[in-house]
Amino acid sequence: MNNKNVEEKMKIIHNKMNKHKQIKGSILIRDNGLHISSKLPGEKYENRKISAHIATIFRHMSKKIKSNEAKIRLTNGVNLYIKHIPNKKMLLASITDNAASPILKGLMVRYSRKIHNIFS
């Protein structure tokens, strides 16, 4: 698949995700912490560091909770919702105000399917 085409499709998906009021930013990473794409405030270097931290946290949590998704509450009312796409070995994470919302879960399922289809 053409790399430019994948990058453009990922940009479109991040833009669509971030249009939803609940989602403040999104990031797609490999299981091992490598940054694939994101739409987060800040510099790219910071996004790559964040990717590694998110993957490490999810790797440790998933062993304990035995789930393909995790909701993490950070300080200042910021939450992370992480959805694992196991057959593609990727993590889709979103920064939200409320990670417990059922609407958010539906959005993450929808966008993880779209990402799965891009990389199929």
Provide a descriptive summary of the structure in words.
By secondary structure, this protein is of the alpha+beta class. The protein has helices at 3-19, 44-65, 102-118; strands at 23-30, 35-39, 69-73, 79-85, 90-96. It has a 5-stranded antiparallel β-sheet with strand order 2-1-5-4-3, with helices on both faces. Strand 3 (69-73) and strand 4 form a beta hairpin. Helix 1 (3-19) runs antiparallel to helix 3. The termini are close together. The mean pLDDT is 87.
Question: Strand arrangement, largest sheet?
Answer: 2-1-5-4-3
Q: What is the helix fraction of residues, given as a range?
A: 40-55%
SSE run? HEEHEEEH
Overall, the morphology is: globular
**Estimated share of beta-strand residues:** 25-35%
Sheet with the most strands, sense and barrel status: 5 strands, antiparallel
Pairing-aware structural class of the strands and helices? alpha+beta
Termini separation comes to 10 Å
